[in-house]
Description:
By secondary structure, the protein is mainly α. The chain has helices at 10-19, 45-50, 61-64, 72-94, 98-104, 108-127, 132-135, 142-166, and strands at residues 2-8, 32-38.
Amino acid sequence: MATTVVTSMGSLVTAGVRAGRFPARLAPRRRALVVRAQSEPEMNPTEETSAKPKAKASPGLWDALAFSGPAPERINGRLAMVGFVSALAVEASRGDGLLSQAGSGSGLAWFAATAAVLSVASLVPLLQGESAEGRSGGFMSADAELWNGRFAMLGLVALAVTEYLTGVPFVNV
């Protein structure tokens, strides 16, 4: 965006002639002073394509953890995926059902450690301004991760309901 400023020097010349500084016949002609200023340098097309996009401001911790923020569903989905696979693995190896695993409290320390590690590992990139959508590609997309997490949450509920209704673990049904 270019801006042009024109200033008439006529008033300066007229004042000089009246003050007797120079005779009227030698007085300079009126000329305009033209000043051009540009707010931004123009870029040629090759520079525009190579220009880096500005990074989005990173959200604060409470913004990331807000109900509609990017972290809660993603973290819960990741924990559900790990929990679903772990619950099935323990059921297949030891024969303990999901409700008996939760009731015994033997894996409570492992659960707390896994939840803490996955939560921190999920929050750090978000707080640095990265998004899951920006890092996804191919069949490993951000939407696929959300859907897998949702199905894992439903799977954990289905395991618990099946064991409660039948009285035996899902693997033994």
